[in-house]
């Protein structure tokens, strides 16, 4: 680890940011009288705040650090990642049309209450349980990636995990959803400004500035953004992006409590739809910005302005920040990384507490007071916060060569597609039984698990040795992660529908 401790000015900037977020949580404490205020902001939030919260929530430290690493990657790094964002836009438009009307009826607090109405409490709890597991693992990985940067200022990784985790728990515990929405707005502004500032600083490091940037990027084919090939093993191609990315976005934004909770805060169905669709275009622009920063890091390395040494692609941007940025700017960018991490983590903690109370505890204990529900919700915020910190520590101890952004998206794709299949079944006019829905879900889990298995190094090696005809040694044969959601959703839907017809 390089010796890159923050100056007093940088430390002061980071400290002011952390104290400000905590104070905002404390400010909103007085407004949290019931679950409606604590979980859905009294349902009076305008479309712009909902839009910013959607984007801020999915723009975690993974986007801030790992996506630039994709653009930087000396072996094949370019703008191909943008093709996923094309599918994201398509998927959000479908969710706005098909699923948002389901959520905006009545007084729902959880997306999975819809499944209770369609299939019964068993399906609701299975779906909610999958969400809780997925969210804890994915956001634990995000917390781990944030700690990889914080370590460069003199703290070890474990201490960094604990620091970021505890601060996020505190302001989410105090302020509920309103605090999350307002801190999302502030954090979104900080991290976008930080990324732009980093890009400018990188250009200033290059002799020739923008012209050198374009020249080096063009020579290395860094600006390639379109690959029309249809290949199920390629994560970044046009058809994988449009088809796999669209279904993945339908799952992540149509069947995930983390996002659905934001729509439930909106004043109306129309405002929720506007926020959701516009968020897709905002994410596309944001991905482009972070990928361009990564290409700038590659150019800096090629010109000798920056030596990343043995740092992984995920670590390169963080290393550049702490080793090459001037005093004051470093503090702002560290605050931007914290903003990227904490906006997602705080949303995750609030949504996880919501899912537990709404889908598990409240149906079993319906006669508690609102104050008791809010108190338990705060306690569950702490529980899920420590669970995410545990996952982050495990990720640090285990290590992996895969990009963190791919690991996070893989985890999400494995389970959210299954839940999307249930919601699509709920849209059918023909009633699907609870037993058929659960059977479809379990079958989908087995199939998508088998699809994921070849991506593991030991499994890939075994398959190539055992079945060389189907898994040739010189080719990548694992299914690309954007296809996990379509496989899970399609299997769940098809099996449940066929079983229902057979029983009839």
Please explain how this structure is put together.
By secondary structure, this protein is mainly α. The chain has a single domain (8-503), classed as Sodium/glucose cotransporter (Up-down Bundle). The chain is 75% helix and 0% strand. Helix 4 crosses helix 13. The model has no long low-confidence stretch (mean pLDDT 82).
Summarize the structure.
The protein is 75% helix and 0% strand.
Helices and strands, in order, run as HHHHHHHHHHHHHHHHHHHH
Briefly note the CATH topology name: Sodium/glucose cotransporter
How many distinct helices?
20
The overall pLDDT average reads: 82
Q: Please report which band the strand proportion falls in: under 5%, 5-15%, 15-25%, 25-35%, 35-45% or over 45%.
A: under 5%
Helix- and strand-based class? mainly alpha
How many strands? 0
Contiguous uncertain segments of 5+ residues? none
The H-level CATH homologous superfamily, spelled out, is Sodium/glucose cotransporter
Rg over CA atoms, rounded to whole Å, is 22 Å
Helix percent reads over 70%
Q: State the major sheet.
A: none
User: How many structural units, i.e. domains?
Assistant: 1
Overall CATH architecture? Up-down Bundle
Distance between the termini: 64 Å
Shape: globular
Q: Class, according to the CATH hierarchy? A: Mainly Alpha
